[in-house]
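Dear Dr. H.,

I hope your travels went smoothly. While you were away I took the liberty of generating a structure for the chain from your last submission, since the lab meeting agenda had it listed for discussion. I wanted you to have the full record in hand beforehand rather than looking at slides cold. The sequence, exactly as received, is reproduced here:
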Amino acid sequence: MGLMAVQSLAAQKMRDVFATMPDSVLGLMTKNNRLDCIDFIENDMEAKVRNRFDGFTVLKALTVDYLDLQLTKNCRVEMKLLPAGDSLNYICLSRTYSGPVPESVVELYTADWREMPGAEWIPRPAYADFWTEHDSVDAEEAERLQRLQDMRFVQASLQPDDMRLTYTLQPGEVEKEEAGRMEELLRPVVYEWDGRRFERVE
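The corresponding predicted structure, in token form, is as follows:
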């Protein structure tokens, strides 16, 4: 019976996962909110509902294995179903908080919403991983720009059409010209789900 229950969970699509997820995961949305969003988006209507804090939540995209949700004005949620063998899915959930600079928290859950240990399944890139060389910027200048990042804001994004998790280092609160020079040296760090964990894509 236990095996049948796991297989039943694995067979679910993102709409089912979203509909039946515990209210505690997102906090602001009731099950009726989530069901209304699904109904609206599947009928080509704006999937916008009033949440528990009397604000608005908008379901922006829903596919078989991906969801994009504007939970609040300042919080975006992405979810992705990750296959693992023939009888199990994991749920990857990324929350991005937008102010003053985007910053993300990534979590991994089993199909029945037990949270997995983060570092074991979802490596977080080191600060140095985001920096690369550029012909127009010498080594001394590159080191200076790196030292400007006292607060290190990292944004994560999931994709509707692949199993990749992309981290992007956001220039902190620096002058516009400095931010532009940083962007010449910054690169995204990409991981891909291999059925067991996220592995770095070189």
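Two observations you may find useful: The longest helix spans residues 31-42. Residues 1-10 have pLDDT under 50 and may be disordered.

With kind regards,
E. W.
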